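Q: What changes when adenosine-3',5'-cyclic-monophosphate is included in the input?
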Amino acid sequence: MEKTFLMVKPDGVQRELIGEIVSRFEKKGFQLIGAKLMQISNELAEEHYGEHKERPFFGELVDFITSGPVFAMVWQGENVIATARQMMGATNPKDAAPGTIRGDFGVTVGKNVIHGSDSPESAKREIGLFFKKEELIEYSKLI
Ligand code: CMP
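A: The predicted holo structure follows.
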C-alpha cells in the first residue's frame, strides 16, 4: 500500500490545526501509521529541504521549520501521495482552492501550514528521514 510523509508545520501547530488536519485525512479514508510531535534540528531541516539548497529562500525555510514543534506523520492508502497533495492545495496559499488545507488556512508561501511528499521517491526518502522502521505501525482496519 502506498505511503506518504505529511507534516503540520510550526504555524499549523501553533494555530492548533493538528486535529483539523488529521481529521481531514481520517475522514477521507486514509490510515495513520505513524505520528510524532517533534522539534526539527537544523541538520534534519537542511537534509529534508536539500533540493532547495540553492534557492534564495533556503535560509528562511530552514529557520521557519525549526522555529517550533512540527507534527510529523506517515499516512497509508491507495494513491495517498497524489490525493494528499490535492487535499493540501497549491504551495502558495493565494493560489490554493477553497476547501483545500492551504486554501482554507494558509497565509503565505512560507507559512503554508503543511508539507507533503510530492512523489514516491520523496515519500520514501522523507519517511526514512523522520521515522525509524519500528515507529511505523502496520495494522488492519476493523471497520
Ligand atoms: P513545502 O511543501 O514544505 O516545500 C518547500 C517549501 O518552500 C514550500 O512548502 C514553501 O513553504 C517554501 N517556499 C516556496 N517558495 C518560497 C518562497 N518564495 N519564500 C519562502 N518559502 C518558500
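Observations recorded in class: The pocket of adenosine-3',5'-cyclic-monophosphate is lined by residues 52, 57, 60-61, 91, 109-110, 112, 115 (CB under 6 Å).
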